[in-house]
């Protein structure tokens, strides 16, 4: 079980961690919400908790709790810029559907 991060996303996370001044990496998880059922949650990680899985790629640590990993196993996290918009994009092989706005997904 694993998730991955593109070089663009890793660069963005590294820049954010540097601006913040501390942190081990970024936590990637899911929560129940949105019109399709689940949404991705990102937050800085200062401490790895019991039951967390840690993946490192492109110089960035991704931390995922066991419950979330079931839904996002195999996901690639990217950071895209389109015109004036920018943000993280998730390529999740477990997602069976997404809402029209792309904010939530179903499995």
TrEMBL record:
Question: Which Gene Ontology terms describe the biological processes this protein takes part in?
Answer: iron-sulfur cluster assembly
PANTHER family linked: IRON-SULFUR CLUSTER ASSEMBLY 1 HOMOLOG, MITOCHONDRIAL, IRON-SULFUR CLUSTER ASSEMBLY PROTEIN
Q: Where is the Core domain?
A: 1-103
Looking at the record's lineage, which domain of life comes first?
Answer: Bacteria
Cofactor(s) demanded: Fe cation
List, alphabetically, the GO terms of the cellular component aspect: cytosol
For this protein, the record's InterPro entries field holds:
ATAP, ATAP_core_dom, Fe-S_cluster_asmbl/transfer, FeS_cluster_insertion_CS, HesB-like_dom_sf, IscA_proteobact
Which is one Pfam family of this protein? Fe-S_biosyn
Species name: SAR86 cluster bacterium
Q: Which GO terms describe its molecular function?
A: 2 iron, 2 sulfur cluster binding; metal ion binding
Query: According to the UniProt entry, where is the signal peptide?
Result: none
Which keywords has UniProt assigned to this entry? Iron, Metal-binding
State the similarity comment. Answer: Belongs to the HesB/IscA family.
Which NCBIfam families has this protein been placed in?
iron-sulfur cluster assembly accessory protein, IscA
Q: What is this protein called?
A: Iron-binding protein IscA
């Amino acid at each position: 079980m694993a998730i991955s991060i593109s070089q663009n996303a890793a660069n963005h996370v590294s820049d954010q961690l540097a601006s913040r001044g501390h942190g081990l990496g970024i936590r990637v998880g899911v929560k129940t919400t949105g019109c399709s059922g689940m949404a991705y949650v990102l937050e800085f990680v200062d401490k790895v908790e019991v039951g967390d899985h840690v993946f490192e790629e492109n110089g960035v640590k991704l931390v995922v709790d066991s419950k979330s990993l079931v839904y996002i196993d195999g996901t690639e996290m990217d950071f895209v810029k389109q015109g004036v918009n920018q943000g993280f994009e998730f390529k999740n092989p477990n997602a069976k559907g997404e809402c029209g706005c792309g904010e939530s997904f179903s499995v």
